[in-house]
Write a structure and sequence with these properties.
With 74 residues, the chain is an all-alpha fold. It has a domain at 30-74. Helices cover 68% and strands 0% of the residues. Helix 1 (11-30) crosses helix 3 (50-72).
Length: 74
Amino acid sequence: MKKLTFPALSKESEQKALELLKRTCEDQLKQYPEGYESDMKALQNPALTYNQRNCIVFRASEKKVCSFAVGHMV
């Protein structure tokens, strides 16, 4: 498979794109009333259904990715 590469349009456009991504991740994190740790605790409940467990794992993963992005961007 051929690797696709695209040159940066400009330093300013790259900076704006990163700022937008960071704000988007921050906004997404604000949508959750509780943090990642709460999801990890919820996963300890043995009464969770398969679907409930998958939903919590998905939500926790999204929080983790967004938190990482926010913490590692400009």
